[in-house]
Specification:
single chain, 485 residues, alpha/beta, 14-stranded parallel β-sheet, 11-stranded parallel β-sheet, 8 helices, 18% helix, binds uridine-diphosphate-N-acetylglucosamine, binds calcium ion
Amino acid sequence: MMNPKSDSVHSAGQTKFEFAIAILAAGKGTRLKSRRPKVLHQIAGKTLLSHVVAAASRIVPAEHIFAIIGHEAELVREALQSSGIQFVLQREQRGTGHALMAAREALQGFSHVLVLSGDVPLIHPETIQRVRDFHIANQAAMTVLTAEPADPTGYGRVFRKFKNDESTDEVDRIVEQKALRNNEGEEREINSGIYAFAVAPLYTHIDQLTTDNPTGEFYLTDMAGVLGKSGNKVVALRAEDSNEVLGVNTRMELAELDAKLRAKKTRELMIAGTTIFRPETCDIDSDVEIGTDTVIEPFVQIIGQTKIGSDCRIRSYSVITNCEIGDKVLVRPSCIMENSIVREGAQIGPYSHLRPGSDVGEGAHVGNFVETKKTKLGRGSKANHLSYLGDAVIGEGVNIGAGTITCNYDGVNKHETVIEDGVFVGSDSTLVAPVRLGKGAYIGAGSCITDEVPADALAIGRGRQVNKPNWAAEKRKQLKSAKKA
Ligand code: UD1
Ligand code: CA
C-alpha cells in the first residue's frame, strides 16, 4: 500500500496519474527572522523540507512531487536537487492560495493533488495515506486534515457543518487566527495545512479567491468556502496525533520539534537495545544507527550518517559526525570525530580529535590531545598522548611516542609519512614528510627525521648533549653581584 507506484486512471478520454503531491515551500518565514528560507532550517539534522519530502516519497514517486518555491528559490532547489523531485516557481509570494495558482500547469496531468506544507515536518506517510483514502472514499473536491492540539493559537480554525445538532464530516469554512470573530477563537479544531484536492474543481474555482482579508493574501483555506458554495464536497479528517501536524513558524517551535524528533529517535534506539543515559541530553540525528548493548552516556552528539556497532561505550561530551564505528569500541569523554572509521575494540580519547579520513585499526589506541587527519593507524598501534598525525599510513603494532608530529605540509603541498609495522617512535619526534620509517625501526626521542629510516635501524636526529659543570652556579653568582652594584 505504501509503495510509491504511479497508478494512472482513465478520465474523459485522457490518461492521468492519480495523485501528485505539492509541497508549499515558497514563503519567507518572516517570524523566524532569518536570512535563510524557513524550509531550509534544520531539525534532527535535516532540513524541514527534506523531512516532508521523505514522507511524500513514500506515497508517490519523486517525479510526482512538486515543491513550490519562491523566496531564495535557488538555495532551496540546490538543497533538494538530489531528491529527484520537481520544482514550481512562485515568483511573488502572495499567499498559500496563490502558491497553488502557480502550480496550475504542473498539476494538469493529475486527477488529485495532496498538498503538504514545507513547515509541517513531522507528518507521517501513514497519515498522508489516510487523507488520500478519506478523500477518495468521500469523492470530495477538498479534504482538510485537522487536529486538536492543546494550544490552537495561531492556526486556522475549521468550522464543520452541522446536521441535527451534530457535527458532520463536511466543512463549512476555515477562518485564519487573525480573522477570528467574537467567540470563534474557542473553536479547538485547527487546520493542519495538509489537504487533498481534486484538480479539476480546484482550478475551475481557484480564481474566485480574493485578498479581502487582514494580510491581503490569497488564502488556500478560503477554497473550503469557495468550493462549498459552488456545490462541491469539502470534508475534514482529524489526525490521530496532533503532534504530527505541528507547524514551525518561530525559533521556539523549531526547538520544540527538534526535541520531539530527537526524543523519538532515542526512544527507538532504546527499544532496539541501545542504552542511553539521560537521553534528553543527547542529540542523535534521525539517520544514525547504533547496535545493541552499546552505552551512550549523557551529553553526547551523534550526527549525520554515523553507524556505531554493538557493545561500545560512548562517554560524555563526544561529538561524532558521519563516522563508522565497529563493535566493542570505547570512546572516552570529549572526543571530536568526523568522517572517520574506528575498528573493533579500538579506544579513543579522552580529548582526541579524529578529522576526516582517519581510520583507526582494530584494537588501536588514540589518546589525549591526539589529532589525526587522513591517517590510517594499523591494528594494535598506539598514539596515546599529544600528537599530530596527518597524511600518514601507520602499520600494525606501532608505538607513537608522546608529542610526535608528522610535518605533512610544506606551505604549498601535503606529503605522506609511512610508518611500517612494529616501528617505535620515541617521544617528541618530528617526522618531516615525505618520509618512510622501515619495519621494526627505532626512533630516538626528540629526533627530527628527514630521511628514510631502514628497517630495524635506530635513527637519532638531534644535537648531542653537552654538560658544562658548575655553569649555572657561576651564572647566579654573577647576576647577584650585578644587582647589588
Ligand atoms: C497556514 C494556514 C493555516 C494553518 C497553518 C498550519 C493559510 C492561509 N493558513 O497558516 O490555516 O492552520 O498553515 O500550519 O494557508 N507559502 C508559499 N507561498 C506563499 C505563502 C506561503 O509557498 O505565498 C508556504 C510557506 O512557505 C509555508 C506554507 O506555505 O511552508 C504555509 O505558510 P505560512 O505562512 O506558514 O502559513 P500559516 O500562517 O502557518
Ligand atoms: Ca506555517
